[in-house]
Amino acid sequence: MSEQQNVYPVRDDIAANAWADEKTYAAMYQRSVDDPEGFWAEHAKRLDWMKVPNKIKNTSFDRNNVDIRWFEDGELNVAVNCIDRHLEKRGEQTAIIWEGDDPNDAKHISYRELYEHTNQLANALKELGVSKGDTVTLYMPMIPEAAMAMLACARIGAVHSVVFGGFSPDAVAQRVIGANSTLVITADESVRGGKQVPLKDNVDAALTRDGTDVCKNVLVVKRTGGDIDWKEGRDLWFADLVDKQSTECEPEAVGAEDPLFILYTSGSTGAPKGLKHTTGGYLTYTAMTHQYVFDYQDGEVFWCTADVGWVTGHSYIVYGPLANGATTLMFEGVPSYPSHGRIGDIVDKHNVNILYTAPTAVRALMAHGDNVMDSSKRDSLRLLGSVGEPINPEAWEWFYRVIGNGKCPIVDTWWQTETGGIMISPLPGATPLKPGSATKPFFGVQPALVDNEGNLLEGATEGNLVILDSWPGQARSIWDDHDRFVQTYFSTYDNMYFTGDGCRRDEDGYYWITGRVDDVLNVSGHRMGTAEIESSLVAHDAVAEAAVVGYPHDIKGQGIYIYVTLNDGIDPTDELKKELTKWVRKDIGPIASPDVIQWAPGLPKTRSGKIMRRILRKIAANECDGLGDTSTLADPSVVDELIEQRVNQ
Ligand code: PRX
What we know:
Its EC number is 6.2.1.1. Pfam families: ACAS_N (PF16177), AMP-binding (PF00501), AMP-binding_C (PF13193). By secondary structure, the chain is of the alpha/beta class. The protein has an eight-stranded mixed beta sheet with strand order 12-11-8-6-7-14-15-24, sandwiched between helices. Strands 5-4-17-16-18-19-20 form a seven-stranded mixed beta sheet, with helices on both faces. It starts with 11 loop residues before the first helix and ends with a helix. Adenosine-5'-monophosphate-propyl ester binds near residues 386, 388, 389, 415 and 501.
């Protein structure tokens, strides 16, 4: 049983200096659930408000009236909170350390420089006609301009929608249309692992799609100087427009409940959803979690290895750290280039104190053996963090022992795009660690486990993870589709936010996330809907039907396993498998690359025509002996055929 695993007690030296020790955590947590209004009124004071809020919490999870508002009569500006207010004390302190893909490329950007560049960009946005409430789509490499673009939008009250640079032109088009963006900010190319990714070409392709003519301008950062096409009147070089602007830009007063950003994520059905995050609650929550979960101390270098295209990058590269006046490191490249020791090399080069990464990265390094980190010492590290998927205890122990030299606590942080910030996690000075457990809830978070009927389960048990009351960082809606928001998160169980995750709670009240209970895959910490991949496949002429499931993968956590039924008369060749792989990569993006394609003469369906994914998951995992009851299938012989095919392929 996992409960018999190692427990790592809180280190005395960390507890002595931490923002919260065990007692403080217990007292603050209790207050946060007993008196959320008082608690959050007090902690919202960590921000500079242009109008201090009096109404603190006004939230309802009732499916007939899902309405979430925090600090609703307050006004503030996020860029002011992340930059201006630090200038007096930290003008010359580094705000962003940028480490390029090439180990010879690095830059330090002080808070003052960040202020000036962000203001220039904000003025440029205004010149392009962007104003408060407008949306801007960002499709950018991991370069400082990405953070500046987010902050420049925030400064003028515009709403950003960042699209991960690994997504396809179609994904960019969908998001430009979905958010009605008049402007796309991109770069000529991005560079990862020594290879160029043609971002501008992808934007050009995206903007040929029907409905994208809302987009009037494309602002292009010159990153590589690579060859690109140019559309006069629409395309503008970033430097030409931005460098000539004033370095002062009056910040907008933004309502606490005005949107800060839209971020698309996958669900179990339909196209990706654009979650709407707002201003006051989000910033309060990300700043506070960044301080307490990472026990961030003044002057430390904080490195979150995520991409700004994901929520982790939004909350813990940009907003949380900068709101706290931290030094945040942004890395353009990949952990394996030019060598597998790169992460350690960067830690030494920039004296990183806190390293926040993903289990998939840890497992990929672990596969190269203990010596993989030999090129670095990593003495500056004080704390490690993990996010994105469950971390298996073996990877946890390796992370602790090899990367952290056996001296850095690991905070395993469970949260979601929807939650805005970290929800369940140890606090380094307060929580004994159990490898593989995200441990205890953050302040104000009330997790619970329910059975499939929504009955609350007590004590040590396993069930569906729900959250019983609102917290300030939560998404408020799906952009332009509140009904879908209600349907997805608040209609499964009455008066609860349903996370989509399964979870176990042990006798110490520790939470152990077991993974998604819906049709969402988590591949290398990237979230994908099986339905999205299926609908891409069935759009191919050769494909009659497709079913996608996840299967256990040593490095990625989950791999993508696809069952394909071909149209009559189509030959099931290896060539076709390659073509389908390319098709999905082109349609969705390289992150959706199939790991296995299995030809399926038929798919296991109930008599009402529903595909029984449980069976497909078992076959994919090669657990063909434990298929359970197949008697409700319309044609049980399909299963034998699939098992046979699996063996023979
Ligand atoms: O299944 C959980 C898993 O990732 C999902 C959220 O994915 P996304 O919205 O892309 O956000 C990822 C980064 C916040 C969750 O529903 N997940 C995330 N963190 C953990 C995790 N599963 C287990 N342990 C974690 N620490």
